[in-house]
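Q: For a teaching session next week I want to show students how multiple molecules come together into a single three-dimensional assembly. I've collected the sequence lines for a complex. Could you give me the predicted structure tokens for the whole thing so I can convert them for display?
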Amino acid sequence: MSKREAPFAYGGLDRVMHEKARLGLLMSLMTHSKSLAKGPAKGLAFSDLKKLCGLTDGNLSRHLHVLQEAGLVEIVKTFKDARPHTQVRVTAGGRKRFLDYLGELERVVRDAAPAAKKKRKAGSKLSPATS
Amino acid sequence: MSKREAPFAYGGLDRVMHEKARLGLLMSLMTHSKSLAKGPAKGLAFSDLKKLCGLTDGNLSRHLHVLQEAGLVEIVKTFKDARPHTQVRVTAGGRKRFLDYLGELERVVRDAAPAAKKKRKAGSKLSPATS
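A: Of course. Below is the structure for the complete assembly, covering every listed component.
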């Protein structure tokens, strides 16, 4: 389906990455990888991701599994100070696909600009919210 | 969960509106309503939404039902030239909630800026995609 045929189909919003929790996980991994320009990212620990995304152990495990199955992240289980340690990082392919996804998200925000602008213009003249 | 506690939780990404097809539907309704500043929006016909979002009859009906149940849209069934006609428009509350959602989406795009910038800087030095 081309953009001209269905401009609001947003085919680039891959459901694996668009899901709220997984979007937060990928955002965390992409923005907290300090060595991007120099080489492969070191990634983040399971406990860091839990805090950054406000997820429970169970939810985090489940969503990481979906991301791993899709080839977007790598999960490395090791020991650190004699305790089990889980490190997660984005794959090279995952990085590319997430940046493509972000491009589509930017398009959504750009498409929405006329509506958001009208709101600012109309200001308090808009009727109060009812749902 | 506050933003400081879990900066990547993105609590404002309401699942009803964040789903790809429903996001496209709300975007269509919000950006094709020409009378926003003057009064209630006229909305769009079922057939227009089908084309704009590239959805089948079944999928469109299903997603519109979800949006209606959440109080985000109103569905008016009438007759036009002796044929059944379905018109859909955003409610006042739906408009407000969708603009709040868009604010959160803008935050995601802003949060992603460092990663997207690094990509442009690194350019062709990044390894090719593998997944």
